[in-house]
Amino acid sequence: MSAIILFSAVSIAQLMLAAAMAIASLRMFRGPRAQDRIIGLDTLYINAMLLLVTFGIGTGRVIYFEAALVMGMLGFVATVALAKFLMRGEVIE
Amino acid sequence: MMQSAADMPVWAAIAVAFFLLIGSGLALIGAIGFLRLPTFYERIHAPTLGTSWGIGGVMLASMIFFTVSSGRPVFHELLIGIFVTVTTPITFMLLARAALHRDRAEGNGNVPDKPNRSQPAGEDLGESDPRKG
Amino acid sequence: MLPYPLLTLLLILMWLLLNGFTRGHLVLGVLVAVFASWAMASLRPDKPRLVKWYLLPKLFGIVLYDIVKSNIAVARIILRSGRRSHNPGFLTVPLDIENHTAIAVLAVVLTSTPGSAWLEYDSNDRTVLLHVLDIDNEAEWRDTIKNRYEKLLMEIFA
């Protein structure tokens, strides 16, 4: 009983997060301006992080949590560097 | 590896499913809004749905699941939650300031050019020329 | 000896959350946290002074409640955005708080709440430029920022 509930909830959640990732990458390709693409990238990695956590719930392994943490940190640094580049034209002043 | 989930109590499974669906549903709504809203400054509000309670719901579900299935309290998902709540405002603020800077430099008339003067936002902000950017 | 006791404590807590609680990791975490707080002291950030720290849970609760409320509001706006039911706009709010930490906390709170985004702070005029998704109740936004958050933050970081 609880296995069925968990399995269907995890599957639906994964489908929704995958759809969110597809939409975010659509906005990333469509633009229209650079700041829209960067926010698209930001949304994409956050949804990918959530997808990894749901994989962790589905398989019962803790290793996905660490992958999600690393992904969040690298994504944050990447987005900040890109935003800084948009503002000044260079990343390190 | 669903055999550990099979001997989970039903209330825990329902709680995990509830928070998981709320979290991923909010993330999906945020992404849809991100696609549908017309201007950049409106779009910046949509992904915060995913980064506030979207993350919160999925993290709560994961915490409940691992706490019940391993029989000891597991809280390390809180770290991702805290990390994301602290960092996303920083990226959004930087991006919004970069967008303001670019719009002012290019003379798109729809942004307030000084902080002490406020004007209503236009419909097609930053999208007058799709070749830009 | 310990320039930032709260930071040290939080770093130890984070180390234990990441690695699981064992006695060895406690020792290692204390070492890492003490060295990290010394490194932080050599950076010399301006130290925030918490006056009424017991009001922090109240602020946390208020923010959590407001985030839930505005999540629902923004989700509703997005799901029926075909009818253009909202009216976005910029909003300039004068601020009274001067403490940099308090301003940073206010910025994080306002940006992580869906429906309002902090764009820039002008330290000459001490005004902040916000963008809100639904500007129809502009007076309510100002009232929320001034009376609900700013008053509490001024009490916490006097």
TrEMBL record, chain A:
Its main location: membrane. GO terms for cellular component: plasma membrane. The keyword rRNA processing does not apply. One of its GO terms (molecular function) is sodium:proton antiporter activity. It comes from the Bacteria. Pfam families: MrpF_PhaF. InterPro entries: MrpF/PhaF-like. The chain crosses the membrane at residues 6-26, 38-57, 63-87. It is found in: Cell membrane. Keywords: Cell membrane, Membrane, Transmembrane, Transmembrane helix, Transport. It is a multi-pass membrane protein. Coiled coil: none annotated. Belongs to the CPA3 antiporters (TC 2.A.63) subunit F family. This is PH Adaption potassium efflux system. It comes from Neorhizobium galegae bv. officinalis.
